[in-house]
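Side project, low priority. Logging it here so it doesn't get lost.
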Amino acid sequence: TEALKKIRQNFSGLRIDAPDDRIGEFVSVETPSPATLKWTGIATLKALNFDIGGKPGAPEIWGLVRHHLAMHRVLFLHFDEAQDFILNQSGREANSVINTIKSLTQCERWPVSVVLSGNTVLADILDSDFQLGRRVPPVHFENLSSAGDTSDVADILQQYLSAADLGFDMESGIEEFISRLIAAASGQLGLVFEFILEAISLAFDAQRQQLHLSDFQQVYRDRTGSVDGANPFIAEDYHGINARAVLDGKLTKQTGPKKSWMVS
């Protein structure tokens, strides 16, 4: 989502023959709840600055969508969390959603490039329909790994520390700490940023000039409510923690004095 926001900035200028400057070349639609074909069409019209009246059905709504896409010369139409748009349907409705998306890309009057962003489930959906997958080729943002991304994450941390004018007493080697940070974030770059910023905020609140490992431990506790045994900044065997499950609040302890943590 953040990457697409940056890309969108490159397509914010006026279009040739467009009626006004209300709509840019790149229009983003947040998937509504419920994410039905009709309500997503209404959300798309709102993103195009058109308020719908009456009670039209889904075919009429999407006809209006195609009309306004052409009228405003929109080149790219982006649906965020698109897996909800497709998965939350019955079988027939899901086919209607896929056919509607395909129709936008092959409209004779004004075809648009459709951008679908979401989680890894979305790639499976695209693979299930050959024509849609061919029109919307997937681009994956790979998870961070301790094996290949330690130096990059260390550079990110150092830039934040420099900007905050803070030192860092990490109590262990930099590679060990970065490995724990990547594990705690479940390989998600955005969470790495958030953990660093929240830890720096704790140091500021305490009026310290040093960032401590305990700041990251506290950030993880506050965010997840997990015990120390499920905290990658504390646990000795942090590689065995399913951080994604912890972050989603789905971790429980097996019975027995020496049982490990598992997904509930």
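Brief comment: The two ends are 29 Å apart (CA to CA).
Revisit when time allows.
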